[in-house]
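Table S2 (continued). Query chain:
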Amino acid sequence: MEMNFHNFLLGKDSDFKNRMIQDIWNYSDNEIEINHDFIQILFPLNKKSQSSFHGYYLDTDELVQILKNDNLVRQNIIKSSDWFLSFLKRHKYWKRGYNHNQLRITRIIECLRLLIDDESADKFYTSITDICDQTQINQKTLSYWKNA
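Corresponding output:
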C-alpha cells in the first residue's frame, strides 16, 4: 500500500496499515508501547529510519515543503507531540538505561525542527528534560536530544 503523508497527517487518509491518525491518538498506553511502526508515520523525517521495516519517509524536498506549509498538518504534528509527551509523563520506566522511547524522542525533536520550527523542537526538548532525571539517561542519548 502506498503512503500519502500529506493526507494522513491531515486526517483524510489511512496509513499503510489502514490506521487513521485519530486511531493512533486513541491508542492505549500498552498499544503505544508495543507498536513500533507508527512513530515514523506521525513524525516523518527526510531520511530513512534505521528502526523501521516499512521504509516510508519524506523522500522529496517538495513533500517536506508541502507539509511544512500546511497549517493543519503542522497543528496535527504538534498535537501528536503533545499526545506522546503525555504518554511519557504517565510512565517512568523509559527514563532508566536504554529504552526505545528515547529513540522516539529524538525523532520527534528532529521532526518538529524539520516541519514546524526550532521553537517547537526546543520546547519539546525542554519538556522532556524537565520530566526526566538526567542522571538516569545515558549521556549519549542526552546529546542526541540536544543536537536533534
